[in-house]
C-alpha cells in the first residue's frame, strides 16, 4: 500500500517537472525503493539506504557481546582433545575397578586424580567458559559439539 502511493507520488512529481540530466525517471520509479516506517533521521526506518536505516549502534558492549556468542575453533579443538583424553582415562579407571572387584587401589586413586587434574586445568576451564554463555553452548556449534560442551561441563562439575 505504501509502496504504491509513494510510486504514484514519484510518478506525478516526475511528470510535472523536468528532471535534472543526471537523474532518470526510470531510476526514480524503480521497484528497489522500499519504505520501512518510522523516521529515517532517527534510525527507525525510512527508505533503506537513507539516514540511519538498518544502522546498528557500534559500541564495545554490542561488539563484545556478539563475539562472545560465536564459537572459537581453538576452544572447540581444545575441548575435543580433552574429552578424548578423558575417555581414555575413564576406560582405564573402569577396567581397573573391574579388575579390583570394586575395591580401591592405588592405580584407581591415581586415575581419578588425573581425571580431576585434566578437567580442572586452567586452560580447559577458560576454553569451556568461552564456549558457554549463561550456561548454554554458544552459537556456531554443531549439535555434536554442543553435546560435547554440555558433557564437558558436567564432567567439570563432577570433579
Keywords:
159 residues, mainly alpha, two-stranded antiparallel sheet, 7 helices
Write the layout of secondary structure elements.
Elements: H1 2-16, H2 25-28, H3 60-69, H4 73-99, H5 106-119, H6 122-130, E1 132-133, E2 136-137, H7 143-158
Helix pairs in contact: 4-5, 4-6, 4-7
| Quaternary class | single chain
- Please give the order of strands in the largest beta sheet: 1-2
Helix content: 55-70%
**Main beta-sheet annotation:** 2 strands, antiparallel
**How many domain modules?**
2
Mean of all residue-level pLDDT scores = 75
Low-confidence stretches: 13-17, 22-30, 50-56
User: What structural class do helix, strand and pairing data support?
Assistant: mainly alpha
Count of helical stretches: 7
